[in-house]
């Protein structure tokens, strides 16, 4: 009896012996490409990689940096919040955005006529901006202006004794991944407000000279556990008492939802510093309305006007 011969192609047995060569399947075709003359040309290599990804259904989306793209499916638009009475963007007196040197990543020191450095527990702030009107793409090229109070609760350019300082204020332009990073110090908790960081998003660096150009104005709500760790350190003594008198759900900015979309992820410790990271969804199809409505005045300590009367809207 004659034994049925197994069909082959270029020395390779058919994967499906009862089917034609053209019907042997993707994996057989890939093997043929790899084995043919023992050489895999660069162009074929790209084709094989693409075929393999499509065949397995496991191709992974990557961002422009070549790493797996972050899942932004649950992203919500960052809430529009007040810029407060100490914005320094020209909407309430002082304007740091007109000054040469404001575009920088390390905002701990003043620039220009002063080099005073703010003290405190080190903090790195990382904001990743997403363009919600463009399928949650990383918002490359937008300019983000960040400002916050110092360890004592004072704001540069406004608080008594700090009128000639501009530290803890700066602008970064988002990279290809929509990321801006600032080196700073952890802010205080001053009387009447939950610990926070202000920021404004502008279409590009050229537009920062006019606060009306901001496409988003919001605040980062700092997590209570991290605040308690920081405020146990020397120099933050007053923040301990102030934190005990406020809550996220009663804060005049975060009370509507407890800062749900404004609470960042935090890593690190008090000795090496903390990294504070927040995704920021910006929808340019909606109207920006948080900034540009700061109360009049703006001198003195946070929560007070020069006359000693509290402002109508603390920032």
From TrEMBL:
Keywords: Dioxygenase, Oxidoreductase. It comes from Glycomyces lechevalierae. The keyword Phosphoprotein does not apply. Residues 303-315 have a biased composition (Low complexity). Residues 117-192 form the Intradiol ring-cleavage dioxygenases domain. PANTHER family: INTRADIOL RING-CLEAVAGE DIOXYGENASES DOMAIN-CONTAINING PROTEIN-RELATED, PTHR34315. It comes from the Bacteria. InterPro entries: Intradiol_dOase_C (IPR000627), Intradiol_dOase_core (IPR015889), TAT_signal (IPR006311). Residues 281-315 are annotated as: Disordered. PROSITE patterns: TAT (PS51318). Pfam families: Dioxygenase_C. GO terms for molecular function: ferric iron binding; oxidoreductase activity, acting on single donors with incorporation of molecular oxygen, incorporation of two atoms of oxygen. CDD domains: intradiol_dioxygenase_like. Residues 288-302 have a biased composition (Gly residues). This is Intradiol ring-cleavage dioxygenase.
């Amino acid at each position: 009896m004659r034994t049925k011969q197994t069909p082959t192609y270029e020395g390779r047995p058919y994967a499906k012996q009862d089917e034609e060569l053209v019907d042997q399947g993707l994996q057989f075709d890939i093997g043929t490409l790899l084995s043919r003359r023992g050489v895999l040309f660069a162009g074929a290599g790209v084709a094989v990689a693409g075929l393999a990804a499509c065949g397995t259904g496991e191709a992974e989306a990557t961002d422009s940096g070549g790493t797996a793209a972050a899942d932004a499916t649950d992203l919500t638009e960052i809430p529009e919040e007040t810029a407060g009475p100490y914005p320094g963007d020209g909407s309430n007196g002082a304007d740091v955005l007109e000054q040469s040197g404001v575009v920088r990543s390390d905002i701990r020191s003043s620039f220009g006529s002063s080099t005073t450095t703010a003290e405190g527990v080190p903090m790195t702030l990382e904001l990743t901006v997403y363009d919600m009107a463009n399928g949650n793409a990383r918002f490359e090229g937008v300019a983000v202006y960040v400002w916050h109070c110092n360890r004592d609760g004072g704001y540069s350019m406004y608080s008594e004794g700090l009128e000639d300082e501009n530290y803890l204020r700066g602008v970064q332009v988002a990279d290809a991944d929509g990321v801006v990073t600032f080196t700073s110090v952890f802010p205080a908790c001053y009387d009447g407000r939950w610990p926070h960081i202000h920021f404004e998003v502008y279409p590009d660096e050229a537009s920062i000279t006019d606060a009306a150009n901001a496409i988003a104005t919001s605040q980062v709500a700092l997590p209570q556990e991290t605040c308690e760790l920081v405020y146990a350190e020397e120099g933050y003594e007053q923040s301990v008492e102030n934190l005990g008198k406020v809550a996220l759900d009663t804060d005049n900015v975060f009370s509507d939802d407890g800062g749900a979309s404004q609470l960042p992820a935090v890593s690190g410790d008090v000795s090496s510093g903390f990294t504070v990271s927040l995704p920021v969804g910006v929808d340019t199809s909606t109207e920006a309305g948080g900034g540009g409505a700061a109360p009049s005045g703006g001198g003195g300590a946070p929560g007070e006007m020069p006359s000693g009367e509290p402002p109508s809207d603390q920032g």
